[in-house]
Design a protein that fits this description.
The chain folds into five domains: 194 residues, no CATH class; 294 residues, no CATH class; 33 residues, no CATH class; 45 residues; 80 residues, no CATH class. The protein is built from 23 helices and 19 strands. A five-stranded antiparallel β-sheet has the order 9-3-16-18-19, covered by helices on one side. A four-stranded antiparallel β-sheet has the order 12-7-2-17, with no helix packed on it. A three-stranded antiparallel β-sheet has the order 1-5-4, with no helix packed on it. Helix 2 packs antiparallel against helix 7 and helix 20 packs parallel to helix 23.
């Protein structure tokens, strides 16, 4: 058995050596082409998450085809075949995107064009086209994501493209890849100071890569609610917002982030709806604040909704309301913070919240009747259950708070289960989905309990509505910031009681108290890799994720959230008392001009520094001509030595020997060292008698 294992190991070593030797002995053109194709694949790979499947498959097939041609030395396809493939790609793009214009169609065609162009790598100019298409493709990734992971991936892509570009401009021979990579890394490093200065001073005009019609980031919240909608959001572990407190952090059960308030129900879906009463008859906000305000700072990820999910209750008061330059922000009568347009960029703001608060009218107004309306014929069994509850002797004259407590008691003792996978309700009849949940299956997520609770309370003639948003945070802060994830999306209820106003009631707390009291939301099963890591070390996955999100948070705060206000703060630090856009423009122009002059000076110095042989030959030429020797610029050192002997005889022998030595070292032996100073000093000394 041991001999068989030894033989197998030897075969593996032989195969590995053979494969490495084959790679090492590839012709330079083949090696450079394969490296170039690898860089193109690396650059285009992240787009596979966004583009049609056919585009990724076609690009991969074209790159594999080109790699096979490079390895076998096959002929490149004709231009007619490439043109036919281009027409096919355009047709598929038109079929999948319904247009050849716009972001998705443009990026789809760009990926295919890059792959097709590799089939035309017949000359250096073809390679240069692919290089610059690659640099442009790098930029398109930031139309989808500006995360730290995307930045690191594209950093490697840029380095690979610069390395391939360096290889294309290297002289004949077989320069190793590591040398070209080192040259590319040095070139990129030289550009870092200019990049940092331009980043700090370039005007912040909206999102750098965002397009008006594109909300690349998203929040799990929606402007409406159907049963199962929030449960699907709970499978998303991405970050919705981050916040930190200027003081002690409140307990998780106090952290409710208010989003859309939904008061209209058609039997299937909850929406904001429109009041049937005049504005003067609708319930006003009427905030009553108590206790100490809680000052906090929040970073909100991009959203598809025009709202700010702020901590309840953040009032519209001086030094408490959020300030968001570039947006029109207002607080609605239902307490939601409204924007004039969707939040297409990550924003950071500061505000103050009063966790002890009351809101809404204390006395009845006609507009409250909108919040007891129910669609006719929907969920008849639930309405009958509510009528039976109301006929109980202890509840006939009960107020809203007592009735709510009775319904919550039923939830806690009625055999209900809080689950992420309750199944689909209302398959046969959507208008009876609440009946099916409340009386039959009793399996649900937060929106099931909130929806059923509000329907029951309205059937009891108590004004009620649904509030969606986020509840709770991660248990441990990251770098001082608490993380609210999409899986923290939540739905709760509000009921109205005379003399009190609107009161928050969270039916989920009756069946799953850990969800509210500790912020422990349900999570989907981990994937293959995460599951393997969890089995090896249950705490390792959490530590790795926390470390990565800490880096992401710093990236967001220091880079993505670098704003116009911070630019002006920088100008104040540089001595501008009241900085303006004009000051910023003047400073930017001055910096760009200084960088251009520095670059020109560097190019001039680098040109002289990098060709000492030519500089030495010019100096030798001038000295020999000054001594009366007829030499020309194209003469090599041996020709100049011969002409020196012919012109000056034995007196010039010492200098002629030095020229022969220089010729021998340059052309006949090892390359001359970069420093010519010792030889030049000896040559000048040998020429002094001739000059005298």
């Amino acid at each position: 058995m041991s001999s068989l294992n030894t033989l197998a190991a030897a075969r593996r070593r032989t195969g590995a050596a053979t494969w490495s030797e084959r790679l090492a002995h590839l012709p330079r053109d083949t090696r450079d082409t394969l490296f170039h194709l690898l860089v193109v694949a690396w650059t285009a790979a992240p787009h596979a998450l966004h583009l049609p499947t056919w585009c990724s498959a076609m690009a991969a097939a074209l790159l594999a085809w080109r790699a096979r041609l490079a390895l076998t030395g096959g002929a490149l396809p004709s231009r007619w075949l490439v043109s036919a493939l281009l027409a096919l790609a355009a047709g598929l793009t038109l079929w999948s995107e319904r247009t050849l214009l716009g972001r998705e169609a443009g990026i789809t065609m760009l990926v295919v064009l890059m792959a097709l162009k590799t089939l035309e790598l017949r000359a250096r100019r073809d390679a240069l086209v692919v290089f610059f298409l690659g640099f442009f493709l790098v930029l398109t990734h930031f139309l989808y994501s500006q995360s730290l992971g995307t930045g690191l991936w594209m950093l490697v892509a840029v380095w690979g493209l610069l390395t391939a570009l360096t290889l294309a401009h290297m002289p004949v021979g077989r320069p190793p890849l590591w040398r070209a990579g080192a040259v590319a890394a040095r070139a990129a490093a030289l550009g870092v100071p200019a990049m940092v200065l331009l980043f700090a001073l370039f005007p912040r005009i909206g999102p750098l890569w965002g397009l008006p019609q594109d909300a690349m980031g998203r929040t799990g919240l929606s402007g409406s609610l159907r049963l199962g909608g929030v449960a699907s959001i709970a499978e998303d572990d991405s970050v919705a917002l981050r916040l930190r407190f200027f003081g002690a952090a409140p307990p998780p059960e106090a952290l409710y982030f208010r989003g859309p308030v939904l008061g209209a129900f058609d039997g299937r879906e909850w929406t904001r709806g429109h009041s049937t009463f005049a504005p003067a008859l609708q319930p006003p906000l009427q905030l009553t604040l108590a206790g100490t305000p809680l000052r906090y700072e929040m970073t909100i990820e991009p959203s598809r909704l025009p709202l700010l999910p702020l901590l309840e209750m953040t009032p519209d008061q001086a030094d408490a309301a959020p300030a968001l330059p570039g947006f029109h922000v207002q607080q609605r009568a239902d307490g939601q913070w409204q924007l004039d347009r969707p939040l297409h960029e990550r924003v950071r703001l500061q505000a103050s919240a009063w966790l002890q608060h009351g809101h809404g009218p204390r006395e009845p107004v006609l507009g409250l009747r909108d919040f007891v309306a129910l669609p006719p014929g929907a969920n008849p069994r639930t309405l009958q259950w509510a009528a039976d509850l109301r006929r109980r002797p202890d509840l006939r004259d009960a107020d809203a708070r007592t009735l709510a407590a009775a319904v919550l008691q039923h939830i806690g003792r009625g055999g209900y289960t809080y689950t992420l996978e309750p199944g689909t309700y209302g398959i046969d009849n959507e208008s009876q989905a609440i009946d099916e949940f409340w009386l039959d299956r009793k399996l649900g997520f937060c929106e099931h309990f909130a929806s059923a609770f509000v329907v029951v309370m309205r059937a009891l003639d108590v004004p009620a509505r649904i509030v969606t948003g986020y509840q709770g945070v991660d248990a441990e802060p990251q770098d001082g910031w608490y993380v609210v994830r999409q899986r923290n999306a939540h739905a709760w209820a509000e009921i109205w009681q005379p003399g009190v106003g609107w009161q928050r009631v969270d039916p989920t707390a009756a069946v799953a108290p850990d969800r509210v009291q500790r912020g422990r939301s349900l999570a989907p099963p981990p994937g293959l890799v995460a599951g393997a890591v969890n089995r090896l070390d249950p705490a390792l996955a959490a530590r790795l994720r926390n470390a990565w999100e800490k880096l992401n948070n710093r990236w967001n705060q220091w880079v993505l959230n670098y704003s116009r206000g911070q630019q002006f703060d920088l100008l104040r630090g540089l001595g501008f008392e009241a900085p303006t856009w004009q000051d910023l423009a003047k400073l930017l122009i001055g910096v760009v001009s200084a960088l251009a002059l520095a670059g020109a000076g560097w190019a001039w110095w680098d040109r002289r520094r990098q060709d000492p042989w030519q500089r030495l030959q010019q100096q030798v030429l001038r000295r020999l001509q000054a001594c009366g020797v007829a030499v020309l610029p194209h003469h090599p050192p041996r020709e100049r030595a011969a002409r020196l002997r012919a012109a000056r005889g034995p007196a010039g022998e010492a200098a002629a020997k030095l020229l022969d030595e220089l010729d021998s070292r340059r052309y006949g032996g090892p390359a001359l060292a970069m420093s010519f100073r010792p030889w030049w000093r000896a040559f000048r000394a040998a020429l002094r008698p001739l000059q005298a």
